[in-house]
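Pair request: fold both.
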Amino acid sequence: MLQPAFTQFPESSPLPVCEGEFTGKPIRYPETKKFRGVGSMIVRLETAVDGKVTKVAILGVIPDEDFISNIVGTMETWTYKAASGADRSACGLESRNHLYKASFRIL
């Protein structure tokens, strides 16, 4: 799986968001000593009707703000894909509230 699980919050939209997952480049964690140890991030993603990420908002990141450009640059390449068998007439890919959470440990 490309990324950890995420949560979607309700919004005023004509259709609910389809079950699915993000595809695209994986996040690469910095390999410098500065980033060794445990870290965490919370990001809100917006997607267009075709599922492409249109906005990345960093809500929180630990250990360091220097990590943000790596996260944003990677997530901007992502696309939200509907799960196999999803009824696209009953759900959509557009959302302003994909909440993405990840924890990592670099030794």
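--- second member of the pair ---
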Amino acid sequence: MSALDRVGRWFARRGWVYLLLLCGVGIFMLPLVWMVGMSIKTDDEAVSTRIFPEIPTFRADSPIVRKPNQPQRPEGVAPADWKELLPLLIRQARASLDACPIPPGGEPAGAQILRDDAATQLTAKLVEKLPEKSWTGDRVALMSAYTRLLTPEVLHDALDNQLGRLEFGALQAQSLDGRIFNISSGSQIARDWKVESGPGQLLPAGDDASYLRYHFNSSDDPPVVLRADFDVQVAPDQLHQVIVAMKGDDSWHHLDAALDCGVTHWRSTWTTYIAQYRVSSLIFQLPGFDDSTYRPKTWIPLQSVSGSSSASSPTAVTLRLFIRPSSTLGAIWGKVERNYGRAFRSIPFWTYLGNSVLLVALQLAGALFS
């Protein structure tokens, strides 16, 4: 009897049982795989239907043109009709975008690509807003209704959102008594802050923000160091927080901070990854009463390190932001670690775990003794 015949007879008797069990294992593993994928996704990816999150890679440049979402066929529209309508809708959006100025950071080389991708993204967004009856009526009426949605504000936002920039919106400081000091904001940042070192350039992005243009040749390049000098007119021991409003460029580069206040030099205790294309606030907080509470740690603690402060006066403060390039592996690790790190810092996890272990141990000891 040949080996092939023996394998066939074995499979006929019992091999199919193992195959069935393996299929069952695969089916029951799907929820676990889905949960692991969801735990790594960013907030933007969490609403998508993809099981696995996008894999980040080394990002050399910023600003960049973001990849657009492809328009989805509305329910009730035949595939043949959608195939004819989609190019018309994108072409109309593209023609309307030609009249809009390119936002800062999108010129000159990427202007054409930016308009093309913004037209695709805008079409994907607007087809969801058209009434269902528009798709079943006259095609001229459909295009007219679609054109009315292409307002100047919508077109401006489409171009602005399609451009991924690392933006800085405002810098504030807060004292222990609750006073808030507005240091700089909008286009002031490009004027008041300095690129102390590294391949970067601060430029105004309209009146509301400034953005950083950078180019890294590799992940081994030195970081871009941004420096902001200001005076808060409070004693160093009364300074509580320094707050930076920013919008990420989804590069997954590292962002660390250093603060010179009085005679003390402070450094951030953990790295922030520049993730997503949404506005957020970086809160750098000096040691204080909050550290002993169970409040979710939404701030980045600062700790004193050796070295002398560069502050010019007792109330002068110098903030440095270090933007270090991430390799592909570093970006992947940052995406895996980010959500888990946020979860562990939001609650005193190890305290809760220790309490649970202690309770279980005491219950087991009591049961055995009794």
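Observation on the second member. The chain is about 40% helix and 25% strand.
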